[in-house]
Structure formats: structure tokens, C-alpha cells
Design brief:
Number of strands: 10
Helix content: 40-55%
CATH class of the largest domain: Mainly Alpha
Largest sheet: 4 strands, mixed
Number of domains: 3
Structural class: alpha+beta
CATH topology of the largest domain: Butyryl-CoA Dehydrogenase, subunit A, domain 3
CATH architecture of the largest domain: Up-down Bundle
Mean pLDDT: 95
Strand order of the largest sheet: 1-4-5-8
Order of helices and strands: HHHHHHHEEEEEEEEHEEHHHH
Radius of gyration: 22 Å
Low-confidence stretches: 1-8
Length: 389
């Protein structure tokens, strides 16, 4: 007979003191710098450059750049803690702030020391520049291997022709990490990654798109017409671009999921606040089951989304290659954030439909989470592939 059982676990959901301080700093920054201006920035589609630089001075921009190149070397888990807080305030502004952490990933993952010193250290950290990540094309969104942009070797240079669409921060970026075909006949093995300077002859950025939501985030098309770049701007070897792009997604999707988690929390808190104060039939509306259960579902889905996001970030940090977990997090958080925004508008009723209340903006902002960084359908394809591998 066993008299006693002593259990020990390495799993903890308690944040460290340092993590709590980082979370608090991001929350206070959001309250002071983002929430007060979010509605105006949305209305006028204003790019939050000043907010970006304030966040950079605070250390919550370029977080993933290693310390040896001037960054803070934050872990993926620390990044998602910040992303949730920024997403709570405004996912349009948070997207503008966090895009450098996507654009610099190909350099962090595949760049050599010289490339990292220049592009990460000198350009992003020291000069405070913007970088955009360029994969999507008009005829190649979910189908990454379908890109048509070409990069042809010419001596010690590459000549790039093609275009990219829906590129975040494109109008403001000082350089781009792009993916192009160096061998079109090799399908996914024919893709290669490059760094292209904004000032290179032949680079043209089109007019930014007028969007339904996340309007404070800049989105535009980029055209490359006989753009010549030196061979030293190639990231990794020829033919490794597809694998690099897939690895980038494993790193970036937890952060996108975390922003959706932040939006969920905002929808939940706005719903609780309104349902406590608003009365119908002589009682606060949260006491009516039809409303109370909506809010209960919001709370459950928020907590579940956050835990999946934390797991995905922990996995990346631990060096575990398991694409289905970031897909779980990204798809679930995006879908549940969409549901939360729809339900929040319903809880507020007619007021929820008015711009005077923030949930109207949440509903417009949230839809893109089911589309960018891999649609919710593509995430499910990844999950099915991995489950049946």
C-alpha cells in the first residue's frame, strides 16, 4: 500500500516577476499611448510613427533582435505577452508596431553575421528604420509556392522582377525581406529569400489600400522592375526560401494569435462593463441567461486562446518543430476573437453598432486575423497534414 504520493511538475502558468514587469509596462504603454488615440487613428487611417518610436525607446519594438546586434533578445514568450497588451489597445496600431519583428525574422533565422550587424543592428536598432515582409502576391496568397516574382542571377548580382501585394508598412519601410523564384521549375525548392533596399532603382511602392479595419496599419503594393541587388543580399542559399518562409510562420503566428487574444480580452471587458450597467426588465442584462452565457463563452474562449498561444510560443522557444501547435493557436484565437467581437456588438445592442463605442471598431479590426499570416482554412490544412503524417 502506498502511504503517500509526492508529485512534482515542471509546468507552471505563473509568470516570473520579470515577465509580470514586462506585461505591466506594455499594459501601461497601451493605456497611455494607444487607447486615447485609437479611434482617431482608425478614422483617419493615420500611421502611428510617433507611437512606434516611443515603443522603440521603451524596448518593445525589435524585441526579437538578439542582444549582440543591439536588441533586447526577447524570447517568443515575452513577445506574446507584449503583443496581447498592444492588441488590447488597437490591433491596427499594434500591427504597425510589431511588423519589424516579422520582417526581420528571415535575417535572424538565415542571415550571416555581416547581414545581421548591418540590417538588424545598424538599420533597425540604431537608425530606427522599418522593414516589411514580402511574400504575398496577387495570384499567390495561401499558395506560397505560387509566387511569380523572379530573381535571376547576373554575375555577382540578382535582377528582381515582380510585385508583392498587401504588404504591411510598405509605404514606410526602408528595406524589405522578399521571397522570389530563382528556379521556377523547381517548385518549392526554387524559392530564395533576399533583402532589398527601398532606395534601389526600380523599387516602386503603390498607393496604400483603404481598408475596412486595422486602418492605422499601412498596407500597400510593391513593384520590382529590374531591381539589381548584390549577391550579398541573399539570405541563405538558393532554393531554401520556402523552408525559411515556413519557419518564419512558426515564429510569427504565436504573436499574431496573441494580438487576437488581446482583442478578445477587450471585447470581454467592454461587454462586462456594459452588461453590468445596462438594465432590461428591471435587472442588469448579464443576469439574463441569453446575455450572461455569451459573456461566459467569451471568457472561456479568451482563456483557452491565451493558453494555446502561450504553448505555441513556449514550443518555439524550446526549439520544438511542431507546426500544428502554432496553427492551433492562430486559428483558434482568430476564430474566437471574431466570435467575441460579434457577440460584444450583440451585447451592446444598438450602441454596439455606433462608433461612439469601441466594439464597433473591434468587429472591423478582427476579421483580418482569419486571413493574414495564413487563413483559418490553411491553419486547418496544416493541422490535418500533421495529424495524418
Amino acid at each position: 500500500m502506498v502511504d503517500s504520493v509526492k508529485t512534482q511538475t515542471g509546468v507552471s502558468f505563473e509568470l516570473t516577476q520579470e515577465q509580470k514587469m514586462l506585461q505591466k509596462m506594455a499594459r501601461e504603454f497601451t493605456a497611455a499611448e494607444i487607447i486615447p488615440v485609437a479611434a482617431a487613428f482608425d478614422e483617419h487611417a493615420t500611421f502611428p510613427e510617433d507611437i512606434f518610436h516611443k515603443a522603440r525607446e521603451l524596448g518593445i519594438v525589435n524585441m526579437n533582435i538578439p542582444a549582440e546586434y543591439g536588441g533586447v533578445g526577447a524570447s517568443p514568450f515575452e513577445e506574446v505577452l507584449v503583443a496581447e497588451e498592444l492588441g488590447y489597445g488597437c490591433t491596427g496600431i499594434s500591427t504597425s508596431i510589431s511588423t519589424n519583428a516579422l520582417g526581420d525574422l528571415p535575417i535572424i533565422l538565415a542571415g550571416n553575421d555581416k547581414q545581421k550587424q548591418h540590417w538588424l543592428g545598424e538599420r533597425l536598432v540604431d537608425k530606427g528604420e522599418f522593414v516589411s515582409y514580402c511574400v504575398t502576391e496577387a495570384a499567390a496568397g495561401s499558395n506560397v509556392v505560387g509566387i511569380q516574382t523572379r530573381a535571376e542571377k547576373k554575375g555577382a548580382s540578382y535582377i528582381i522582377n515582380g510585385s508583392k501585394i498587401f504588404i504591411t508598412n510598405a509605404s514606410h519601410a526602408h528595406f524589405f525581406t522578399i521571397f522570389a523564384k530563382t528556379n521556377p521549375d523547381a517548385v518549392h525548392k526554387g524559392m530564395t529569400a533576399f533583402i532589398v533596399d527601398r532606395n534601389a532603382p526600380g523599387v516602386k511602392v503603390g498607393k496604400k489600400f483603404d481598408k475596412m479595419g486595422q486602418r492605422a496599419s499601412d498596407t500597400a503594393e510593391i513593384v520590382f522592375e529590374n531591381v539589381e541587388i548584390p549577391e550579398e543580399n541573399r539570405l541563405g542559399e538558393e532554393g531554401q526560401g520556402f523552408y525559411l518562409a515556413m519557419k518564419v510562420f512558426d515564429y510569427s503566428r504565436p504573436g499574431v494569435a496573441a494580438a487576437a487574444v488581446g482583442l478578445q480580452r477587450r471585447a470581454l471587458e467592454e461587454s462586462i462593463k456594459y452588461a453590468r450597467e445596462r438594465e432590461a426588465f428591471g435587472t442588469p442584462i448579464y443576469q439574463h441567461q441569453a446575455i450572461g452565457h455569451k459573456i461566459a463563452d467569451m471568457a472561456m474562449n479568451y482563456e483557452a486562446s491565451r493558453l494555446l498561444t502561450w504553448q505555441a510560443a513556449w514550443q518555439v522557444e524550446a526549439g520544438i518543430a511542431n507546426p500544428k501547435v502554432p496553427a492551433y493557436a492562430k486559428a483558434f484565437a482568430a476564430d474566437m476573437a471574431t466570435k467575441a467581437a460579434v457577440d460584444a456588438v450583440q451585447v451592446l445592442g444598438g450602441y454596439g453598432f455606433m462608433k461612439e463605442y469601441p466594439v464597433e471598431k473591434l468587429l472591423r479590426d478582427v476579421k483580418i486575423f482569419q486571413i493574414y499570416e495564413g487563413t483559418s482554412e490553411i491553419q486547418r490544412n496544416i493541422i490535418v497534414r500533421e495529424l495524418f503524417r
